[in-house]
Amino acid sequence: MKKLLYLFLILPLVFSSCKKEDEKVQGCTDSAASNYNSNAEENDGSCLFDGCTDLLATNYDPAANNDDGSCEYSIIASWDLDQIWIDNQDVTGSFFEFEYTFYNDNSTYYEFSLADGNGNVLTDYGSEVWALSGSTITCVDIVDGDIAIWTVDHINGTQLHMSATLDGSLWDIHLKK
Description:
- This protein has one helix and 13 strands; from the N terminus they run H-E-E-E-E-E-E-E-E-E-E-E-E-E.
- By secondary structure, it is mainly β.
- It has two domains: 25-72, no CATH class; 77-176, Calycin beta-barrel core domain (Lipocalin, Beta Barrel).
- It is elongated and about 95 Å long.
- It starts with a helix and ends with a strand.
């Protein structure tokens, strides 16, 4: 019995005295990553590279795997109507054709058709020159010189939301590609 007791006391000492291999510190070992760990000895695949990850953005970064909100988008495109509100009333159903195109040379072309309350079809089209400053688009009609100042509320690769006060009415337009 004594021998058995000694065996239970000695065996744990033998196993605990064996040298264990030091575990390597895991983490991101790439110094270009935003979560670089200078103490890491072994890369665990967790490295984050900040940048724009949206393929539709003008500043898309193919090396980025962590979107940092820096994506930039161009308004130069042909846009179709998605939704339109005038004075907070949805009038999207009144329009059955609506296209707005911004060109590289700072010109635009717009065309729309809508049904009025009496069943008549009203059509308008024209060209403008435009300038973008920050989130403000200023459009000047080439024919009559009317000026419209739009505020870009949201833009991404497929949507452009803008608003303006025109002829005393608040217009809120959502366009899509």
